[in-house]
Amino acid sequence: MIRVGDDYDVVIGNGVLDQVVQHVPDGAQRILIVHAPVLAEAAGSVAAAASAAGLTPYVEELPDAEAAKTADVAVRLWSVLAQAGFTRTDAVIAIGGGATTDLGGFVAATWLRGVPVVQVPTTVLGMVDAAVGGKTGINIPEGKNLVGSFHPPAAVVCDLDLLRTLPHTDLVAGMAEVIKCGFIADPRILELAADADAATDVAASVLPELISRAVQVKADVVSADLREAGLREILNYGHTFAHAVEQVSGFRWRHGDAVAVGMVYVAELSRRAGLIDEELVAQHRLALQAVGLPTAYPVDGDVDERWTALRAAMGRDKKTRGSTLRFVALTGIAQPTRLTGPDERLLRAAYDAVRE
Ligand SMILES: NC(=O)c1ccc[n+]([C@@H]2O[C@H](COP(=O)([O-])OP(=O)(O)OC[C@H]3O[C@@H](n4cnc5c(N)ncnc54)[C@H](O)[C@@H]3O)[C@@H](O)[C@H]2O)c1
Ligand SMILES: O=C(O)C(=O)C[C@@H](O)[C@H](O)[C@H](O)COP(=O)(O)O
Ligand SMILES: [Zn+2]
After folding, report:
1. Any catalytic annotation for residue 191?
2. 67 annotated to bind ligand
3. What's 168-354's CATH class?
4. Where does NAD(+) bind (predicted)?
């Protein structure tokens, strides 16, 4: 178990789905359980446990993946909450990957200006990142997570048994955020992830250690800076380019895959800005490729038009101030810094270095 500040616990273990209802704060009478389509069975068992505990469960299946993170889905759930008479002491439980926990958290954050949410992440990415730290939100066509709120959960319950059904490609995508934590804060993660077969094997002991280490990195950072006044920005390493890639693709890219390419982009940019050497750039590619993550950005159209679209999307990144782009960068492993307002020629050169 990892404590986030003085606020809540992240429970990590096998068979802990049974404990979810115990983490619903006292006073709740009604529970809205939102879940990804593939998690219907888990949602059913949590609903049964809620009924046995005297709560009234309402179960709502969400569209899969990024299709859950829309205003339409939020409106639908607000109506469910209204019609069921949810009050401020009632609660939401979100069961699924990061898309489900972002949407479930957002609905909890906005209903009556905030009701408790228990996050039950079922992907590696959800466990190490999305469900922890209180960032909730939805996408709009113009950009990723542009609407949202900081709303820390009442608890996060990570049942490692649920990872057994996770497709390998989604497990690998989650490794991007794990490796990100290695580059920004915990070099031991990079050593462990280098044994890629073990690191991506749900039956081996390396993956739980990687998950715990990455959660610890996130817990330490968000405990110190929940609202991203400064330090928390380091968790956004690789995300300026990644979110642009996701938006330009119509949210068809997996987030983790985009973060992998985004970290290579910012490494290439940082080298050109004189912050790091070629060796550290190569280390990014090696670490990501070892586990099967992409390190290049395929352009399936006009190269210049694509750059124009990506550059415009990067301007909508939340770290931008005025018209000045700001990147999280490194000066070395576990030595994050900021790269503010890099020259447009460097931005374009880094794109040319990652595109194929
Ligand atoms: N709030 C944050 O701090 C934060 C941090 C990182 C990422 N995110 C967000 O998280 C999202 C990405 O999360 P993700 O990678 O988990 O993607 P996802 O939620 O889209 O899940 C990926 C796929 O795995 C399936 N799935 C989930 N659990 C499963 C299981 N146990 N067995 C079988 N299939 C399963 C889902 O149905 C989906 O098809 C993005 O929207 C990203 O922006 C948020
Ligand atoms: O928790 C954070 O802070 C992060 O930046 C973690 C990221 O991995 C995550 O993708 C987050 O949702 C991005 O936040 P955003 O503020 O850039 O939308
Ligand atoms: Zn991310």
Report:
1. no
2. yes
3. mainly alpha
4. 64-69, 98-102, 122-123, 135, 144
